[in-house]
Amino acid sequence: MDLSGWHGIRKTLGPGIIMAAAAIGVSHLVQSTRAGAEYGFALVWAVLLANLFKYPFLEFGPRYALATGQNMIRGYAKLGKAALWVFVLFTLLTMFAIHAAVTIVTGSLASNLTGIDLPVIAWSGIVLIVCVLLLIQNRFSFFDSLIKALMVIFALSTIIAVVAAFSITGYQAEPGFIPPDIWTVSGVAFLIALMGWMPIPIDAAAWHSIWTVEKMKLTGYKPKLSEVRFDFNLGYIGAALIALFFLALGALIMYGSGESYASSAAAFSNQFLNLYTLALGDWSGIVIVICAFTTMFSTTLTVTDTYPRVLTHILNVLKPQTETSNNRIYRILLPLISAGSFLFLVLLGDQFRLLIDLATTLSFLTAPVLAYMNHKLIHHPDIPDEFRPKPWLSRLSIFGILFLTLFAFIYIYWTVLI
After folding, report:
1. Hey, what's the torsion of the CAs at 43, 233, 64, 319, to 10 degrees?
2. Between 205 and 295, whose confidence is greater?
3. CB neighbours of 217 closer than 8 A, spacing ≥ 6?
4. Which of these, 81, 112, 134, 145, is most buried using a 10 Å CB contact count?
């Protein structure tokens, strides 16, 4: 690629990394590690298929933003009021559960990182306050730069942990260990929860379209489609690989050890870090805790920023006169949504596994509808031909809708009808 090409990529790079920061959180640190810990490498196929079949629907987000100069929320309105209200309803149904789930994991890890013994709910509140203070000025450039820095720290620490695990430990279970069967009610429920956020909910296509529009406004540069896709693929493929890294860590260190995943966030955090240091040595403790906390803080920061931004754009569509007050609306919604998520945590308590499985399952069950909406939107007559997906991507999109629908019915069959 010539220098002018790299110049364009440099101006475009950012939204894909923000998406990766949002993705590499509970789905990776908790669910992927738990998949490896409980089933070894048996669920690699689920991670790969979830990433493959969600790819088109998430790629359509930045593609739509580049093609139209607008975010997908406005696109849903073009599909009709029903499509817009489906997105609004799904956002409101999952918003507090998703935000609370990522925050409570971050809070539990903050306690380990600092050594300050506070209840995990208190730490969750502190994490939310820090995120709100960092974001209150609504400066996308600062948010963009901070996430990039956090992701560099995270990537380096993760690579160190994975290399150490492969070189020091072996993939073997304790004598007499009986591998669990995934095709049970509890197994299928976990499988759906694993794929629900793998690598990220399909709602994130609309989030990504907002970040892409913001990036174009910030730089004053309209990128080529190839540059936008490079940014997206960098974040998406990176997130998929890191999911496999965490599954491998769980399989190499926890599988067949007789340990079961903790049901509270505080216990999970201690268990997670202790098992790694026992397997890799005390030297790894600081690497693991930095890796884990950086992962979850970047996710929490991204989600804390995203929902006020999404709701602001929903208001813009429903009431166009609000567009002149976007900064003020964002600054009002930012603490309000964070307070709502904190209240959600207080009411639910430290029901760690319940909270995460609830949030991830809701995301998966809503995925087929959102996938169909994204497919229909990117093939809308208003989309110029040069921005339409290639035939292979359109076909993958159709297969993705069938895949997501099939597993939604499998979940309903195993958990409701049996």
Report:
1. 70
2. 205
3. none
4. 112
User: Which tokens go with 21?
Assistant: 């920061």
Q: Give the separation between CA 60 and CA 58, rounded to whole angstroms.
A: 5
Least Cα distance to 287 among 171, 172, 163 occurs for: 163
Q: What's the CA gap between 174 and 333, in Å, rounded?
A: 51
Q: What CATH topology corresponds to 3-417?
A: Amino acid/polyamine transporter I (1.20.1740)
Instruction: Report the greatest alpha carbon distance in the chain.
Output: 67
> What does the pLDDT read at residue 1?
45
In the block, tokens 């609000």 appear at 322
Report the predicted TM-score, pTM, of the whole model to 2 decimal places. 0.85
* pLDDT in the model for residue 2: 45
Determine the Cα–Cα distance for residues 247 and 43; give it in Å rounded to an integer: 9
DSSP letter at 177?
A: -
Q: Give the residue carrying structure tokens 């990220």.
A: 200
Evaluate whether 203 touches 90 at the Cβ level (below 8 Å): yes
Task: Please state, as a whole number, how many other Cβ atoms lie within 10 Å of the Cβ of residue 221.
Answer: 14
